[in-house]
Specification:
5 helices; 8-stranded antiparallel beta barrel
Length: 162
């Protein structure tokens, strides 16, 4: 009789997720649902962290794929840091300057001066430099979602996202 009861207990543990509670299982599923990380993954990552943070310390230890969640967050943060798509404008010494960076890796640059040649081409941004197909290598830093600082001739110029 003791063996049957013990076997029944083991079977119940197996069927209920080896002793994990439902919140742990749901957290693991939320982490799995993140999938391939992109700029659109922020909401899913936040939701998984909220679920994880709501767990007790004991339950947090039972989440087997927490490392995948932290890796997804790191990758997402890196994508956000290097994403400068959009229209950025600055005023400097009476000049209005505009950079338009497009999702396909192309850009256009405009200035309200006949002495300045508007440019366009392709670009890359690694978080510290914008390199263009026209040969420009511009030191740059994305401060936040609305502020980009580019350095030209040793002068920092602050661009604001429109």
């Amino acid at each position: 009789m003791k063996i049957k009861v013990f076997g029944l207990c083991l079977l119940l543990l197996f069927l209920t997720g080896c002793g994990k509670n439902k919140a742990v299982e749901e957290t693991e599923l939320l982490i799995l649902d993140i999938g391939e990380v992109s700029l659109e993954s922020g909401g899913e990552i936040d939701k998984a962290f909220e679920a994880y943070d709501a767990l007790s310390d004991k339950d947090k230890a039972d989440v087997r794929n927490y490392d995948k969640l932290t890796a997804a967050k790191e990758k997402y943060d890196e994508l956000v840091k290097t994403d400068i798509t959009g229209t950025w404008c600055a005023s400097f010494l009476g000049f209005e300057m505009t950079y338009c960076f497009y999702p396909d890796g192309t850009y256009e640059n405009f200035m309200n001066s006949a002495a300045f040649e508007n440019t366009s081409g392709t670009y890359t941004f690694d978080g510290s430099r914008i390199k263009t197909s026209t040969g420009r290598d511009i030191p740059a830093k994305k401060v936040d979602d609305r502020t980009l600082i580019m350095t030209a001739e040793g002068v920092d110029i602050t661009y604001t996202k429109q």
